[in-house]
Design a protein that fits this description.
By secondary structure, this protein is an all-alpha fold. The chain contains eight helices and no strands. The chain has one domain (38-175): Tetracycline Repressor, domain 2 (Orthogonal Bundle), CATH 1.10.357. It has helices at 2-10, 18-25, 29-35, 39-63, 69-104, 109-126, 133-153, 160-175. Helix 1 packs across helix 2 (18-25) and helix 1 (2-10) packs across helix 5.
């Protein structure tokens, strides 16, 4: 998995061969095919693990914590930016490319399931401050995703006071309190 993720996130998914993954992992192609029927199945498993590690588990942990809502929002923002920093645009490109191929073949439902699980966690977290927590959760996820993309473009815009201002505005918008 580690070898596959390193290769898939350093070059385009389509340009990586199963032989390269096997070589990087120190196993034969046959051994790799013993566990995965195709490169797409290997990508599916890599993507599933990536989503669990970077989205599902951390969002669940933050949403279910005993912290005040405002702190949860700050932590979610930091998680989003840290994930963008750590995995950068190449991993995002892998996610999009592999997801597109998996979707075409009817094998991408796990991505939707992971996304819906996270939306459910966020909706539970927001249930006390919104009459429509699921809609607000989708909006929060979209804002965090958009900020992660903006971070990839201009990371310097997310430092120091600028980050504190974003955290404050996120609190205002998603906890339904007034600014000030």
């Amino acid at each position: 998995m580690r070898a596959a993720m390193e290769l898939f996130s350093s070059r385009s998914y389509s340009s990586v061969s199963v032989g390269e993954v096997a070589s990087r992992a120190g196993v034969s192609k046959g051994a790799l095919f013993h566990y995965f029927s195709s490169k797409l199945e290997l990508a599916r498993e890599a993507l599933s693990r990536l989503l669990a590690r970077t989205v599902s588990r951390p969002v669940r942990r933050i949403a279910r914590s005993d912290e005040p809502l405002e702190e949860k929002l700050r932590r979610l923002l930091r998680l989003s930016l840290e994930t963008a920093r750590r995995y950068d645009a190449r991993s995002l490109a892998f996610l999009i490319e592999a997801y597109s191929e998996l979707r075409e073949r009817g094998r991408a439902s796990f991505v939707r399931d992971a996304y819906e699980e996270s939306i459910g966690e966020l909706a539970s977290m927001l249930s006390g401050v919104s009459e429509r927590p699921r809609a607000r959760a989708r909006l929060l996820a979209a804002v965090l995703d958009g900020l992660a993309v903006q971070y990839l473009i201009s990371p310097e815009e997310f430092e120091g006071e600028a980050l504190e201002e974003l955290e404050g505005e996120l609190e205002v918008v998603f906890s339904c309190r007034t600014s000030g």
